[in-house]
Write a structure and sequence with these properties.
This protein has helices spanning 41-48, 119-124, 126-139, 156-167, 181-186, 200-203, 216-225, 241-246, 260-271, 287-298; strands spanning 2-6, 16-19, 29-39, 61-62, 67-74, 86-89, 102-106, 110-112, 147-150, 171-176, 191-194, 207-212, 226-234, 250-253, 279-284, 305-309. The protein is of the alpha/beta class. The strands form three sheets. Strands 3, 5, 6, 7, 8, 15 and 16 form a seven-stranded mixed sheet that branches. Strands 11-10-9-12-13-14 form a six-stranded parallel sheet, sandwiched between helices. One of its GO terms (molecular function) is oxidoreductase activity. Pfam families: ADH_N, ADH_zinc_N_2.
Length: 311
């Protein structure tokens, strides 16, 4: 099968096309014929070698951990899916990712794609959607009426987090650049702080929860707008625990855990049009396509999700 691989860590020039054996399913796995995948920061962070101690994979590595396609084969013990089912998943993080024509996925991580969703839309949901879900609900346990700040609202995680928090009944503030203000209000944000014109630290106060996707100075300043006993989930770095202790704030670095049942709950929201997917960029499964997609992701200015279309 065609795949885009890396054979050593480094820049975008390490991405190359290869012919890799098609996977065979384990007893509790399915083989998905991929129609689309999407780009996430973990892809280029792993490509650069930043995660090699945490994920010491053997080369060649196929990057990519969002799957959307059709069930092509099922393992002997799989009875919840059949050949031909339209499915999506955030597979386990292995060296056989989704920049390929086929991938193996543990059956319990799969969910069925709602009929009103394209493969490209479905490919945007698993990693970013589950990250938002687990930050808001598993870590934050956000409740109706609580005040929630979501940094970088126009990004992949941000666009899902705004909608999920709003659906849960929270008051949602978010940060974004001038050109994304109207977009984020259309997703349900109650308040959009244009970081080019104002400082969120001077505008917001007494918040229950912050979702930090920026780290650094933004993370530090986020402590000041949280109330005593508030919560901060970061998807980039471990927050300062001394600062957190001063205000009895629960804070931590949240690492996504693939979860098929949570994905199925999101599929239901998508089916009911209570959650929508924002695709900002589309590229083909080719060396040039993936390199350009990585460049957009690394710029930290992607709007919505970056999709890879697999013919």
């Amino acid at each position: 099968m065609k795949a885009i691989i890396i054979e050593q860590y480094g820049g975008k020039e390490q991405l190359k096309e290869a012919d890799i054996p098609k996977p065979t399913p384990g007893e509790q796995q399915v083989i998905v014929k991929l129609h689309a995948t999407s780009i996430n920061p973990i892809d280029w962070k792993l490509r650069e070698g930043y995660l090699k101690t945490m994920m010491p994979f053997d080369f060649p590595i196929i990057l990519g951990w969002d799957a959307a396609g059709v069930v092509d084969e099922v393992g002997e013990q799989v009875n919840s899916f059949k050949v031909g089912d339209r499915v999506f998943a955030r597979p386990e993080t292995t060296n056989r990712g989704t920049y390929a024509q086929y991938t193996a996925v543990d059956a319990h991580l799969l969910a069925k794609i709602p009929e009103n969703l394209t493969f490209e839309e479905a490919a945007c949901v698993p990693l970013a959607g589950l990250t938002a879900w687990q930050c808001l609900f598993d870590f934050g346990n956000i409740q109706k009426g609580e005040k929630v700040l979501i940094h970088a609202g126009a990004g992949g995680v941000g666009t899902f987090a705004i909608q999920l928090a709003k659906h849960a009944g929270a008051y949602v503030a978010t940060t974004a650049g001038t050109h994304n203000v109207d977009l984020l209000k259309s997703l349900g944000a109650d308040e959009v702080i244009d970081y080019k014109k104002e400082d969120f630290e001077k505008v917001l106060s007494d918040y229950d929860f912050v979702l930090d996707s920026l780290g650094g100075e933004n993370q530090e300043k986020s402590f000041t707008i949280l109330k005593n006993g508030g919560k901060m989930a970061s998807i980039v770095s471990e927050p300062n625990q001394e600062k957190a202790a001063q205000k009895n704030i629960k804070s931590g670095n949240v690492w996504l855990k693939p979860n098929g049942s949570q994905l199925a709950k999101m599929a239901e929201l998508l089916k009911q049009n209570k959650l929508k997917v924002l695709i900002g960029h589309r590229y083909p499964l080719s060396v040039e396509g993936i390199r350009e997609a990585h460049a957009i992701s690394e710029s930290h200015h992607a709007k919505g999700k970056i999709v890879i279309e697999i013919s």
